[in-house]
Amino acid sequence: LDVSMDIWNCCYTCIVSLWLRRFYIYCAVAFGISIWIIIWFTTTKTKKKGEKSNGKPPPSEGIEDKLLNTSATLQAKEVYVAGVKIFYGSQTGTAKRFAEGLAKAVISLNLPVEVVGMGDYDPDDCLAEETTSKNVCVFLVATYTDGQPTESAAWFCKWLEEAANDFRFGKTYLKGLRYAVFGLGDSVYVDHYNTVGRNIDRWLWMLSASRIMTRAEGDCNVAQSKHGSIEADFEAWKAKFLSRLQALCRGEKKPCSGKCKKGKCKSPEKQSKESSDHEREASEYENTEAEELFETSSEEEVVDAEEAGGTNSVIDVEDLGNIMSHMKKAKREHELEEGGVGTSLTQESTGRKEEGGKREMITPALREALTKQGYKLIGSHSGVKLCRWTKSMLRGRGGCYKHTFYGIESHRCMEATPSLACANKCVFCWRHHTNPVGTEWRWKMDQPERILQEAIENHQNMIKQFKGVSGVKADRFEEAMTAKHCALSLVGEPIMYPEINRFVKLLHQCSISSFLVTNAQFPDEIRNLEPVTQLYVSVDASTKESLKRIDRPLFKDFWQRFLDSLKALSEKQQRTVYRLTLVKAWNVDELKAYADLISLGKPDFIEVKGVTYCGESSASNLTMANVPWHEEVVHFVQELADLIPDYEIACEHEHSNCLLIAHKKVRL
Prior knowledge:
By secondary structure, the protein is of the alpha/beta class. It has two domains: 83-250, Rossmann fold (3-Layer(aba) Sandwich); 364-663, Aldolase class I (TIM Barrel), CATH 3.20.20. The protein is built from 24 helices and 16 strands. It has helices at residues 2-20, 22-53, 59-80, 94-107, 123-126, 154-165, 195-206, 230-249, 268-273, 275-292, 302-309, 317-338, 340-356, 364-372, 388-394, 401-406, 448-464, 474-480, 500-509, 523-528, 544-551, 558-570, 591-601, 630-643, and strands at residues 83-89, 113-117, 135-142, 178-185, 210-211, 216-219, 376-378, 382-385, 413-417, 485-488, 513-518, 534-538, 576-582, 605-610, 647-653, 658-663. A ten-stranded mixed β-sheet has the order 7-8-9-10-11-12-13-14-16-15, sandwiched between helices. Strands 1, 2, 3, 4, 5 and 6 form a six-stranded parallel β-sheet that branches. α7 links the parallel β4 and β5 (210-211). α6 (154-165) runs parallel beside α7, α12 crosses α13 and α23 crosses α24. The longest helix has 32 residues, at 22-53. The radius of gyration is 33 Å and the shape is flat.
């Protein structure tokens, strides 16, 4: 036993000694390996030089080259085209038949192929994967009634359109995806001919996907079909596609950049001859796209003002007075020159204006822009839109921070506003200031009954589009058809609406709870507001200087209005909330001032949220550097909570980068 113990102690001592000196052992091993590499490299180099001087090629070199070439060939086959994925949207079965025929032709090229019905595909989860899959995606889509997609392709097209126009996805969301589009339509319907195919091609291009060939269009109208029938049109396109696919498999480069205007590609020869024309067209295309994103005011003569200042002009409310006076003066002078005709027209138009009352808030240009962003506009100044958290919870996923903080079911929440106008131009506005601005209500007003009825109808119609969508829970879909909560925070300043009290009362009569958000610029309206379920005030800064820089309010007495609004909030006998939006390097160092504002308004809850980056905008110079990390928001909240002893941290929603501070009197 003593001998075994001695052996064990000796082994243990050696092991411990080696472990304590492991650094020196590592160094010695590394030194030995380095010496071996140097010797091997020197010997090999000397050997190659000797064989070269004797005129004998090194035997190993040819073998290595063959192995490298073989490896490169295998790698090229794997990298260039991994397979083909064919998406189809069909109503009568023609597109599906074409997809199956194309699949057989692709299989003959020894390439993997998958045929996918758009109705069974969830682009939200899967489409981005195609950017790295090395697949070529083919879209065979038919245009149905009134230029709409078929029922099976409706959700796919809606998602793609929203993604293309939603800054949160980014312009490079589908960069790396290679695609080709063949549309099925009937030229008898001139206004809607192949609308869906053209739209899908454009939306994919807007998300930086690369087309591998020109978009093609099949025509059911035999008289106008290029090849005599839609089947012949498809066969002609299929031959070109297979040829292009084989070229891609060989690693040949694309014949063009893949970014030609409106899906029309040119050959390299034409591109070299018409480079100046191509640049001019590209410039025009960019200008056209730029015109779709614009900023407008709520004044009466926006369209005429745009004509006076140029199509890309951005007009502030402060400047509209001078512009309007100049325009009216010029109009009167023109009418005097025209004589009696102009006078009679002026009297007629004046009579119509007096008869019709005030003008509508939403101009035709503004209506087009907001509709493109996914708004369902109601009347002349209201809107509703489906929140992404509603879509998420319909699929059985998580809800928004209101679900975590207050138990609001996101799939039963309707996000709306009775007033698209706002009195601020916040630098972090997630609508990029496409909504109108103003300091008072001077527009035509719709009745609250109409607004509520159409809001619910539009909300239900948007929910209905999820019926049958992959991943949507049937029970939640049924529940979502009955909204139980309304977030009056979509955009604008809902408290500006003169009939806001009647509107909120109607909501409550329909058993719909209400969260109303105001930007703290209308203290009298806050005092006159009847109780809502929860009243929010946005506290975007705690000093006069930072509030002016961040919110960019239109009122000259904005700071006094801000303080009066907080005082008015403290007088409300209902649940109240401060909403703090942290902008890094702008307002995160004002803890003591925030604590003073909290003591002024005495809110029941305080929501502290990191700013959301909304993409580049001419209206703001914010970047991702201004978005605080969640850990930074947590640290800010902890320090703020130490300064307000009557409050404590209650909850957090990391996905939204948001925390909740609650007054101890309402401890959950």
